[in-house]
Design a protein that fits this description.
By secondary structure, the chain is mostly helical. Helices cover about 80% and strands about 0% of the residues.
């Protein structure tokens, strides 16, 4: 028995060292063949090779349809706010809670839903999320009051969190590793097109029907996704229990962060208090989760340098994206005097260019080091944003179109390879946490970007704030590209 502790320590070290080695460098277990059952060999082969055809296509269609539902519903609700305000006889400021409640549930639920996916199986939690999202959509359509609608939207956001947090993990099990970049590219394409088409689809529905139909149309699509979900890959969960106190601390971090960021410019004292509360909750959460094998906030993954670099780069570029998305409408409308419709048309090339670049960069990421693709994407995004900030567009607005296209191409060439690297930097068993961290990094960057523009509008003239914001966005995009190159040394 005296030798048992040393054997235990040796085994633990081996497990830890294997956990953070790149997946492409791992070798099969050296255990005797007679200890490997036929079912374990089949499970390993399925994990490495993805699903067979045509099951792979059906599973991919179900995953993409679900992410389109979640993204599209977040985009089209903004268009309905005036109609909701008038129909339910509430103030415009109160109707904004229809959007805020969905976003709040989404950001609070991402990491817990990822942990549930690892515990109970990705397909089971994903399917539950689709069910919750579909039922909540029906409740939104039937809402008789604003309170009912806000509660239903919060429930819908929780369903969306289960969908978004497990997309990457399901794609990893659906596709063989050699095609994973392509799969992530198609997912980015679906997200880009959904975001771009959301306001247009919402406006089209509102021209022929009342606002409840914006949510009712989700129901049949959700049912179809549920039917197709039986073709999704299955995996056995770890059975780990979800720590409720950690979940509460997670909510105590993200909820005050979102509200504090929104109030920082209009009510700085309250906003500052909420941000301090968010930091305190984050510190408590890190201390509680620091030494756990699979923490709710993936500290184990963040210790791996490639994963950490990808997260930092993602936050930088999504912050740059949100700063520009807020600054450009003000610049085009107030600075250059364009009407709203023309402003929308001039901004359309950006998401269309993202949709074009995403599958191409996904295909290339299977063959070219992702660090170079991310660096090139960050540089292109930075050049496009800096051009928008410095070019004298008052004389001629034509150069804005190629600059906007360059921004979209740059972001598309950054996002897909970065997400691929983030996913493959994590052990397969922690794919859920990696996917949850992808979405969390995106939402964190978008929140920080909104705060930056709010502070700029309060501190400097509204005439120059958008161009200053675009210049800052260019610096952030360049930083994201430079950070990505650090992976080349690892």
């Amino acid at each position: 028995m005296a030798g048992a502790p040393s054997l235990t320590r040796r085994a633990s070290f081996t497990e830890i060292s294997m956990q953070f080695r790149p997946e492409t460098d791992r070798t099969p277990s050296a255990e005797p063949l007679h200890q490997q059952t036929e079912s374990s060999q089949q499970n390993r082969a399925a994990a490495e090779d993805g699903l067979p055809l045509p099951q792979r296509y059906i599973a991919a269609a179900a995953v993409l349809a679900a992410i389109v539902l979640a993204v599209l519903d977040g985009a089209i609700a903004n268009v309905a706010l005036p109609s909701i305000s008038q129909t339910l006889a509430v103030s415009p400021s109160a109707s904004i809670w229809v959007v805020t409640s969905y976003q709040l549930a989404l950001v609070v639920g991402l990491l817990p839903c990822a942990a549930l996916g690892e515990s109970f199986g990705f397909r089971r939690v994903f399917t539950t999320g689709v069910i919750v999202f579909t039922l909540a959509s029906a409740l939104c359509a039937l809402s008789p009051s604003l309170g009912w609608l806000i509660a239903a939207r919060f429930l819908q956001g929780l369903g969306g969190a289960a969908i978004m947090s497990l997309i990457a993990a399901l794609l990893r099990l659906t596709y063989p590793q050699r095609l994973l970049g392509t799969a992530i590219g198609w997912n980015a394409l679906a997200v880009a097109l959904s975001s771009a088409a959301g306001p247009t689809i919402g406006a089209a529905i509102l021209t022929v029907a009342d606002w409840p139909w914006l949510f009712a149309v989700n129901v049949p699509v959700g049912v179809l996704v549920l039917i197709a979900s039986r073709f999704l890959p299955t995996n056995h969960g770890t059975g780990r229990r979800l720590d409720l106190l950690s979940v509460m601390l997670n909510a105590g971090f993200f909820a005050p962060l979102v509200f504090g960021a929104e109030l920082l410019s209009s009510r700085p004292a309250i906003g500052a208090v909420l941000l301090v509360a968010a930091v305190m909750s984050l510190v408590a959460l890190i201390r509680r989760e620091l030494h756990r094998q699979a923490p709710l906030i993936p500290l184990d993954l963040l210790r791996a340098i490639p994963f950490r670099i990808s997260v930092i780069a993602s936050v930088c570029c999504f912050t740059a994206q949100m700063v520009s998305y807020v600054a450009l409408p003000f610049y085009l409308q107030q600075g250059l005097g364009l009407p709203a419709l023309e402003t929308g048309l001039y901004m359309t090339p950006w998401p269309l260019a993202v949709a074009l670049a995403a599958p191409i960069s996904g295909h290339l990421s299977n063959r070219i080091p992702t660090a170079w693709l991310c660096a090139a994407g960050g540089v292109c995004l930075a050049v496009g944003l800096l051009g928008c900030a410095l070019w004298p567009l008052q004389d001629d607005l034509t150069p804005f179109i190629p600059l906007s296209i360059l921004c979209g191409l740059g972001f598309g060439f950054f996002q897909t390879p970065n997400n691929r690297n983030m996913l493959l930097s994590a052990p397969r068993a922690r794919s859920g946490a990696a996917g949850g961290m992808q979405s969390t990094a995106r939402l964190t960057g978008q929140t920080v970007g909104a705060v930056i523009m709010a502070l700029l509008f309060t501190q400097i003239s509204a005439d120059i704030a958008p161009r200053v914001g675009l210049a800052l966005a260019a610096a952030l995009a360049l930083a994201g590209g430079i950070v990505s190159t650090l992976r080349l040394e690892k």
